Amino acid sequence: MRLSLSTLLCIWLFLQRATAHPVLQPRMADFGSVRTHLDRPHVNGNKKQPNKYFQESTFHQHYDGRFADRPLKYDEQSHHLSALIRTYLLTMESIGAETWLMHGTLLGWYWNRRIMPWDSDLDVMISETSLHFLAAYHNMTMHTFTLPRYKTRRSYMLEMNSHCLENGLDKQNMIDARWIDTDTGLFIDITTLRRNDTANSEPGLMVVKDKHHYMYDDIFPLRQSTFEGIPVSIPYAYPDILAEEYGDESLAAADYQHHHYDAEKQIWVPQAVLSSSAFNDDDKT
């Protein structure tokens, strides 16, 4: 069966539309297009950095001011961050994107497989293949979950930086994407591990836009574990990575950020709670 020229042209146009990449906007999505419960945005637009995609909120650098007007309290934040990373990991697994924990989030995994209670931001990394996949098919997608702890459904948005496909160091656009809680404004920073293609680069050297660099064997093969009760991938040489970034003491010091690590219970306890407990014990004697 022969197809007419007009039919072939229609098929070609359909395939072009079906496979075309969505246009990535020069700045993060405007408040009007993503607004939820706020009547105005709380975003600190920096005129000195006109090319910066993700803008900080006016009240806290680790919150998205399009979705929140204040930081959460200590206990509230921990619960919402746990939901944030769990929904992210479940989503990436379901769509087939390769991702793993990095930076302070990886340090939290090292200690007790949980987010450190004083940490207000989460960090993950993805491969270049996953970056292109997410940018092409999942930018600005909304993902809704019904979580046991909350009575209402929770929505999360994956937003890609319009500069995410550009290689090279970029201080203004180090973050390639964010997984954002549209109810609280909390987010996960997503960066990409790229091969260093410069002529004089060391074989196997991998780089990130934020100037971090790793050898391929530092990251791969990824190890499998759990984090906040969800299956997760972590870098192969995680002790070396953490020691280089935070120092050897970060893997052993039991007192940090006004918390003490209880090895028996495997939790970080605020010093205020410890002081209160010690006072009560002394009062009983």
Automatic annotation (TrEMBL):
Pfam families from the UniProt entry: LicD
UniProt cross-references to PANTHER family, sorted A to Z: FUKUTIN-RELATED, PROTEIN (MNN4), PUTATIVE (AFU_ORTHOLOGUE AFUA_1G03790)-RELATED
Keywords: Membrane, Signal, Transmembrane, Transmembrane helix
Every LicD/FKTN/FKRP nucleotidyltransferase domain range: 98-197, 209-247
Name assigned to this protein: LicD/FKTN/FKRP nucleotidyltransferase domain-containing protein
Example of a GO biological process term: glycoprotein metabolic process
Subcellular location per the Swiss-Prot or TrEMBL entry: Membrane
Cleaved signal peptide residues: 1-20
Highest taxon in the source lineage: Eukaryota
Assigned GO CC terms: membrane
Predominant location: membrane
Membrane topology: Single-pass membrane protein
InterPro entries: FKTN/MNN4/W02B3.4-1, LicD/FKTN/FKRP_NTP_transf
Keyword Flavoprotein: no
